[in-house]
Amino acid sequence: MGRSSRNNADDGDDAPISGTPLRFMDAVAKQAAEAKKKNTVSDVDLKQLEKRLNEEVDEDFFEDPRHFNTLPRVIDVLGVQLIDDATVQESSKNLPQNPAYKRMKQQHKVVEDAIEHMAVIHCADLNASVISVGRVARQFSDAVEKVRNLRKQVREIQDSLGPSSQQQQQQQAAAPSAAGAASMSLRELWLKKLECEATLSLLDKLDVIRAAPARFDDLMKKSRVGAAVLSVSQSLETMFRDDVAQVQALHKIMEQLMIRKQTAEEIVWDALMDVVFLRTGNGLTRKQSKKKKNKTMGDGESTSGVGAPSSGQSIGSESRRSGGTGSLVGTGKLPKKGPAGGSSRSSKFVIANGVMNPFITRTFRFATEEDEEMDLTSNDGDDDSVLSETSEASLFSIEGDVTAEVSASSAAAASDDGSVTSSRSKEVSAATTSNSKGQVRRLMIPIPMIEAELDLEQDERRNQEEIALAGMPTQSSRTKVVSTAHRFALPTYGDHVLALRILVECIARLKRMDDVERVLLDHVQHEIRMLVQREQARTFARMEKRATQSSIRFTGRTDHLKDFRRHLTGLLSAFGCVLQRLSHLGQIMRFRIGSDRELMQKMESPNSVMRSLISSAHELMQQEIKAFLEACLKVPDESHAMSGVGMTTTSAVTNSAGTTGALFSLGVIEENHNGDDQANKMATATRSNVVEMPTSRFISSVLFSKTKNTPQVRHALTFRRMVARWASETDYMKYELAKFTGEDTSTASFNVKGSESATMYLDTVIQKDLLPAMQEAAVNGTVLGLERRDGFDPVLDRAVYNGTQSNEPQDVDMCIACQSVHSSTGPLFMALHRLPRGGEMYMPVVAVLEHVMLTFISRIKQQMTRLCDNKTAFKLLEDDGGKQSTLSLYMERRKPFTKLVHAYADGDMLEAAATANANSKQPLLAPPAGDTPRQTEQKGESFTEEVADGVEGEEMIMELELKTLGPLFEFSKDRKVNEIKVCTDEELMKALTLSHSLLKVSSLLETRLKVRNSSGFNKPLTSTRPLRESIKTVTQFGLKMAKFCRLDMLFQNVVRLAKVCKSSTLVARDAVRIPSSVNDLGEYLTGASDNLREAAGNAVTAYTLSSLEQYIPFCLMQTVRVVAEGKGIIHKAPLTMNGIEALDRSGSVLYRDLKGATAFDNSFWDVELAALSFERSASFMAMMELEMEELVAYYNANQTDFPESDFMLMFGMTGPRRQGDVGRFHMINRRDKKHSKKKS
């Protein structure tokens, strides 16, 4: 019974304040009177409510709802409405005047008032939060258990004090001395029991206070800060109670407890610094040997991904109680919920327990103190976070397949206060996005997780167990010296959210919540500088390691800004993680203050706690970033502005012309006088002093010195996108914190403007110093290349060991004019990807590029006119109105043209139709009938025709082309052939070079305007439609020149083969001799193939020589027709068998020469089509040597091989072995017609 009473006394908070029973009873009565007085008002209200409910509400409304009958009530209301027939139509309007309805409304209002009174006044504490409900539930359970124990004790006392009268007499007779004790009243015994309970309770409290210092030291040795703080805080609360404070012997213990409290505060502050400034709480990573690290990189476990828990890791009790789904590291995918589940986009950002960290990835992290012991090999091969191109893989890239979705808070703040400029707000909106399936990005802690109840001791113990299981030390290497005998190690944590919740609860227990912001403000500048120093040490170690591994004969192209980008990315990653942890700390503190009424009254503005600290930290980080940028840029004067742009247009154009330097250096020695001079001037950097270097000196002495680079303004474009992405993420995190905690975003403290931000600094440098110089260099470089005399001439490689006879694909350079356009506009195209879309800097760059392209197009037209003027091929490609002719459309339907387009797709010059299906149709879809005609349709292009498929398709296209080209193949008419104007060899080479250069430069420029999104598809940049149209115009000019070269090559063959019908070899009687024009054509094809491939590459040359396997046999057949008609050399001498044999051998020679001229890789030579065409021409020639009977037999067996006009011509021809007889042909035709009629 005593033990039970003692336990009950410990559970209650109203223990007796003295050892005297009378005093205790007086105190109890006094407390009861005060409680009764406080509850008088509430009791009166309850009685009044009960009276109103009994009097004003009908009794049947209090019955069981299952037995309540609603029909009488409805009948009462409708019965009154139906009394007067005139009011039936207006029943709905007169319903409020219905007495039965009014009475029910009054009763309804009484019941609602009673419910609202109970919910607002008597249940207000239960509406605060989930934690309040849990606390009330526990208090109720304790009260029930306490009442149950008290009733049990009362029953025991009644049993012991309530025996029968007969038993009392026997006891009095047996023990007279016990009569006095038995006659004690129940009140005296009850007071005696309470006195014993008070004494035992006091002893227990004294034991707890006495053991508190030793227990604190023991817990601190185990780095259990939360349990130690809980022990100290409970001991101090007990110490200052009225019953314990009167004990004089506890003063020394109180001094020890105050010392422990101070120690606990110092350790908590240091632990909080470690968590906030990234010394702990960076996730669970198993320590592995160096050999095992490289093997496990692809196993889904992060070996260098410090900064987030590993997959499947628990972060404490809140993840279990809030229904957490564990942590997802490096996948970027949240669990699917129904049909609108997680995003399909595979992101590299870390997502742990629903909180996304956009500042770290699985392959990149910030520098930690353990970097000196870790292997940096895994990070050396990781270029994921330092890409400078348009890939979305960059850690701070703003390119991606995301939907701009500005949050309400950020949009309101940006529009109302004007703190965010137009370009800045667009970057903030780029960060406030959602995934493709509607999954909202969340950088703050989810509400269910932060509302989950925290068990300080259990969660801290579970954290240490998980760290131990991961093979990590549970104590930090940093210690806190309390005295000579005590040295406590700081704790380590796996998850920073759990660590912050534990430390905030410790601070709340120590009553120091109002000092958190002040303490962190005193150390934030020093801590941020330490982050910079850690990154400097890490960068220096990485560069030293790579320098020892590199070979002296390494001649590959290196990216000199890679180390700069890696260093800046590390800084931004560390700064972003610190800001996120500060925001999480502010969110946890604001929630903790909001759940405590005492703290709510104590704090002035609980919803804006930590705002000034976050703003100060952000301002210091901006200063460090600006210091890095200023050291890398060092904005030059106007006289040195052009040198800072890094575009030496004259040298670039000169080198592209074919000049070579350092002939005997073999590419091993590269002169760099600037780097040598700079290295001699810089102080030697070592591992001992590199950490203490200021940012500017580190950049100059380490980065610039080791990379042989110099400060230039153009570096601003390299860093701008990274800094802008970081700034947009931090701005979004600021607005999200305000949204989660209910902070007023219209206050001055929230919208405070500090000094110039890093993004604004870069924009100023780019707009004032860089863009003007880049624009001037682009215009001047393009004009300089266009004004050169050899601007459009072929760039031939005249090296000593040049293998011009090789059949391998050659990567032929563009002409100097196209090279100047490509190289001069390269920085501007790069700037388009790094500048904010549609901003003040973006559109002028687009306008300058469009101006450059228009200038380039005007010079292209002049060069085309200079090369193609008065040429027959050029006249046939255009009609009288200057539009595309029908012949040009027919040429586009050929398969070689499709292969040519594929060869220059995406800048690929060497793979000509390697991946294209040679036998597949490529239909062009027709637009809807009611749609607006496209620009290409207005030019005369057809979208309803198909590309030629196979031999039959090519034969059909040839028939369509001959509708225009037919008159030029009439060899019997000298005037037609003599009117053909063809290019010289030099002009044809220049025309083909121009076609190749235009197609290549347009493909490269179009690729520069595309951005690869997360789905793997390229999409063009915004607001660049006029520029894309100009590039398409260049492409059209390139294709037009390719078609011109093909037609001109065809006419070169026609002009030479037209002389065969006049050759004396056809009437030679002594020997078989091949016509000289045939030999001349074979030599021309062989030489032209080598020269054109050297000047323009394989793709355009293959297209130029395409379709000759059809037209050369056709020209031979035209020669046979001229001979059969008796024209040409035949009208002077008869045809001989040697002449027929000469024609047959001419076909074989031309087949061999043409096949040799096109025998290079990726040629468009069609073997099947060539075999069919040359066999047909050979059969046509063979008919000239047949006798009449043999000709009749051949005609009967092969009537469909040639048209009737050709057979009639052969029957009328007088050859070496027959006399012409056209009547025989007509007789055969009439006989065949009669047979066909009889059969029908």
From the structure above, extract its key features.
mainly alpha; 1240 residues; 59% helix
Walkthrough of the structure:
The chain is mainly alpha-helical and 1240 residues long. Helix content is 59%, strand content 3%. The strands form four sheets. A three-stranded antiparallel sheet has the order 1-2-3. It has a two-stranded antiparallel sheet with strand order 4-5. A two-stranded antiparallel sheet has the order 6-7. The protein is elongated.
**Count of separate DSSP helical elements:** 48
What Rg do the Cα atoms give?
48 Å
Mean pLDDT: 74
Helix amount: 55-70%
What's the topology here?
Blueprint: H1 2-11, H2 21-56, H3 71-81, H4 91-94, H5 99-122, H6 130-161, H7 165-174, H8 179-182, H9 186-221, H10 225-239, H11 242-245, H12 251-276, H13 290-295, H14 317-321, E1 327-328, E2 349-352, E3 355-361, H15 377-380, E4 403-404, H16 408-416, H17 422-431, E5 433-434, H18 447-451, H19 456-469, E6 475-481, E7 487-491, H20 496-509, H21 516-549, H22 562-594, H23 597-602, H24 611-633, H25 641-645, H26 649-656, H27 673-681, H28 695-707, H29 715-741, H30 758-787, H31 816-834, H32 842-868, H33 872-877, H34 886-892, H35 895-903, H36 935-938, H37 950-965, H38 974-978, H39 985-1008, E8 1010-1012, E9 1018-1020, H40 1025-1057, H41 1076-1096, H42 1098-1104, H43 1108-1124, H44 1137-1157, H45 1167-1182, H46 1188-1197, H47 1204-1211, H48 1222-1239
Antiparallel strand pairs: 1-2, 2-3, 4-5, 6-7, 8-9
